[in-house]
Each structure stands twice: as structure tokens, then as C-alpha cells.
Amino acid sequence: MVYPKENWLIKYFEEKFKNIELRFDTVEKEKILQAREYERRLNDLNHENARVLAQQDKSVSVEKFEGVVSQIYSKIDDIKKDILPLSDFKQKTEGRGTGMKDIMDIIKLLIIIAGFFLAYFVIKK
Q1: pLDDT(33) > 90
Q2: More exposed terminus of the chain, fewer Cβ within 10 Å: N or C?
């Protein structure tokens, strides 16, 4: 910049002062924008905290899950203890010939006998 000899120093410093004012204004605007961004992020984090708490209410902790699983296994063991005498009774009755295989053998034998009777009566006529 070329200034006339008189007042050139004043004009030079006025221009420098304007540049400094523009920089400060720019910095102030940037601070305001940054504060707004911080406020937006903080607001998002607050909503995220609410979302995480809602998700935790829907889910089950590992300790609770393991507790329920151990209760289920203990119930299964109790049921097995109740069923064991019944299975012993079944084994004892199977030894007496009342098992399913024995019943099927008896039914087959009855069908064969019925077939012989039918054949006998058909031939006799």
C-alpha cells in the first residue's frame, strides 16, 4: 500500500487496527460456533445416556441370567429325582413281560390264530 507522505502512519495503523478487529470478530464468532457445537454434543450425550438407561432396563445382567439358569438346572435335577422311581418301576415291569415288544408279539400271535380259524372255516364250507 502506498500512502501519501502525510498521515500515512495514521492510515497504516488504522488499517492494521481494522484487520485486528476483523480477526477478533472472527475469533469471537468461532467461539460462539464452538460453544453451540459443544452444547449440541452435550445434548446428544444426555439423550444417549437416556437411551442407554432404557436399553439397560430392557436387558438382563449376566448375574441375573446365571442365577435363573442355575435355578432351572436345579429344577431339572428335582424332576429327574422325581422321575427316577418311575423309570425303575418301568424297568421292573418290563422284566415281567409287559413291555411294548411283548405286547406286539402277543398281537401278532392273535392275528395268526385268527387267520388259522378263518382259513379253517373257509375250507370247511
Answers
A1: yes
A2: C
